[in-house]
Amino acid sequence: MGIGGISIWQLVIVLVIVLLLFGTKKLRNLGGDLGGAVKGFKKAMGDEETKTLDQNTEKTAAEEEPAKEKDEAK
User: Which pTM was predicted?
Assistant: First the structure.
């Protein structure tokens, strides 16, 4: 028994049929497009995370400045 009740032989047969239908060139292009999409998604998620961290840092710095001024006034 394989994944979800599908045996290895059934997976091999499905892969051979897909290769025959689409050909290796189209599958290679599809894989490249899918890889590019995943890479773009990861980059966008990283950019958003960096942006959020920068905003939190700025907010923390802005909150700390009045506290420093109060300490200096004493």
Answer: 0.47
